[in-house]
């Protein structure tokens, strides 16, 4: 893994809020992250935050446990932790360990816990836990017992959750998030009944039954055409939301190849031309990160591909490359008003011998969006860590409520929290740390 000097001191600028150019006369600020690991046990491929003990402080959820903030030293179960494996110790004896062997052993194991969300689903004022499960299986939410001891009551939300990048997001515009996924061959969403939250959620197909496989990769939600309604993004194009959802009509499909199937997909105006573009990884178990510039002409909407990173170092301006971008978030990391990419390498998606470069460092990055004159765009890759990576989910939340976005990761390496920190630096230090283009002739 090649790390240019700029990556070891990822810089952005701030004057109250972080700005994007030293020419503004702002104080340069160093952006860094403080790493904490709550456990090295493998319980899930995603993690998130919520206020589960109702004390006004965010806690972490990962697998069948939640960790109480702000120090995250106390772990409590909310669901049964039934999985165990035997770990061979140095003296030859075996010790029974809770968790999955895929994290520490030789075999690959899959968790049925892929995505976690902390949210008040029954509107009682206490955050519950929503878990989107292994593709093809159920997704459930766990009702917060309001401080009472014992495991939380499980309520099945949807019996079949397909696609490896489902989401919990408001796709209908009614102010209530839904589970957006494919299920039993169709794309669509599942909505809860506000009057009976414990009941199965109602499935609304938006596509015909095209027999989408449960392990299909790449999906997202965003307003592609700028009509104010959220559309569904998938690897083969986008589905346009109609003016009315009454009767569950089939949405209009617009075909375009956004790679072979990556992770979470995002619609965002990358170059500032007023049109939402598409940001996505290209292959969840391979290589590729790109943004697709929206272009409008006589034939309507199409896209122009811009590769940010691929298989070889020279394919990225700064010489960065890694595989298995199975989780992608898009959020303003440095407060300059532009959304940045947060992604990394999924650790052992298919075990120690599967997928490209399974033994490479499990990196975690944020890519700063920089706009230049004439619509020019650059994404500057800044490393957060080299020994954690991502799972199928990477969550960006302001965990400690200091108005700085933090990063939460849960995967086969365990549970990690990266708290963002900033400090002022001199103009000389800032100038010295500016990114240098990758020299393909020297490999540096």
Indicate the overall shape: globular
Structural class: mainly beta
Q: Strand order within the widest sheet?
A: 20-19-18-17-21-22-23-24
Radius of gyration: 22 Å
Model description:
With 444 residues, the chain is mainly beta. It has helices spanning 5-8, 427-432; strands at 11-15, 17-19, 27-39, 47-50, 59-62, 65-68, 74-77, 84-88, 94-98, 113-119, 128-133, 137-143, 153-169, 178-183, 186-191, 202-205, 219-222, 231-234, 237-240, 252-255, 264-268, 277-281, 289-297, 300-309, 328-331, 340-344, 364-371, 377-385, 394-397, 406-411, 414-424. Strand 10 (113-119) and strand 11 form a beta hairpin. 45% of the residues are buried. Residues 1-23 and 101-106 have low confidence and may be disordered.
Describe the structure concisely.
The protein has 444 residues and is an all-beta fold. The chain contains 2 helices and 31 strands.
Topology:
Blueprint: H1 5-8, E1 11-15, E2 17-19, E3 27-39, E4 47-50, E5 59-62, E6 65-68, E7 74-77, E8 84-88, E9 94-98, E10 113-119, E11 128-133, E12 137-143, E13 153-169, E14 178-183, E15 186-191, E16 202-205, E17 219-222, E18 231-234, E19 237-240, E20 252-255, E21 264-268, E22 277-281, E23 289-297, E24 300-309, E25 328-331, E26 340-344, E27 364-371, E28 377-385, E29 394-397, E30 406-411, E31 414-424, H2 427-432
Parallel strand pairs: 17-21
Antiparallel strand pairs: 1-2, 1-3, 3-31, 4-5, 5-6, 6-7, 8-9, 10-11, 11-12, 12-13, 13-14, 14-15, 15-16, 17-18, 18-19, 19-20, 21-22, 22-23, 23-24, 25-26, 26-27, 27-28, 29-30, 30-31
């Amino acid at each position: 893994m090649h790390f240019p000097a700029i990556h070891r001191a990822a810089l952005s600028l701030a004057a109250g809020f972080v700005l994007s150019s030293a020419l503004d006369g702002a104080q340069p600020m160093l952006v860094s992250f403080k790493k904490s690991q709550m456990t090295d046990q493998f319980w899930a491929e995603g993690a998130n935050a919520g206020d589960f003990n109702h004390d006004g402080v965010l806690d972490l959820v990962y697998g069948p446990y939640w960790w109480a903030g702000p120090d995250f030293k106390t772990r409590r179960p909310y669901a049964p932790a039934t999985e165990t494996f035997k770990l061979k110790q140095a003296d030859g004896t075996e010790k029974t360990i809770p968790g999955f062997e895929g994290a520490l052993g030789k075999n690959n194991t899959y968790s049925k816990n892929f995505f976690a969300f902390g949210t008040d689903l029954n509107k009682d004022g206490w955050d519950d836990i929503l878990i989107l499960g292994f593709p093809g299986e159920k997704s459930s939410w766990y009702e917060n017992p309001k401080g009472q001891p014992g495991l939380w009551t499980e309520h099945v939300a949807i019996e079949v959750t397909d696609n490896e990048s489902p989401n919990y997001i408001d796709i209908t515009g009614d102010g209530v998030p839904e589970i957006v996924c494919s299920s039993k061959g169709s794309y669509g969403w599942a909505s809860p009944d506000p009057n009976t939250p414990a009941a199965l959620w109602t499935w609304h197909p938006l596509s015909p039954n095209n027999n989408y496989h449960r392990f299909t990769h790449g999906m997202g939600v965003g307003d592609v055409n700028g009509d104010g309604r959220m559309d569904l993004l998938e690897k083969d194009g986008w589905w346009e939301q109609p003016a009315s959802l009454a009767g569950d009509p089939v949405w209009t499909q617009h075909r375009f190849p956004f790679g072979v199937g990556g992770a979470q997909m995002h619609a965002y105006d990358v170059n500032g031309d007023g049109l939402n573009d598409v940001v996505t990884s290209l292959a969840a178990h391979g290589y590729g990160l790109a943004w697709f510039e929206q272009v409008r002409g006589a034939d309507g909407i199409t896209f122009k591909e811009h590769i940010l990173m691929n298989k070889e170092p020279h394919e990225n301006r700064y010489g960065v490359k890694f595989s298995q971008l199975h989780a992608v978030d898009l959020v303003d990391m440095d407060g300059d008003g532009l959304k940045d990419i947060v992604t990394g390498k999924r650790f052992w998606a298919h075990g120690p011998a599967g997928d490209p470069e399974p033994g490479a460092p499990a990196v975690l990055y944020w890519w700063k969006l920089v706009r230049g004159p004439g619509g020019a765009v650059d994404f500057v890759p800044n490393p957060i860590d080299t020994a954690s990576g991502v799972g199928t989910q990477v969550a960006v939340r302001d965990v400690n409520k200091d108005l700085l976005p933090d990063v939460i990761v849960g995967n086969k390496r365990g549970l990690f929290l990266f708290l963002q920190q900033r400090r002022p630096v001199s103009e000389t230090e800032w100038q010295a740390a500016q990114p240098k283009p990758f020299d393909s002739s020297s490999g540096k």
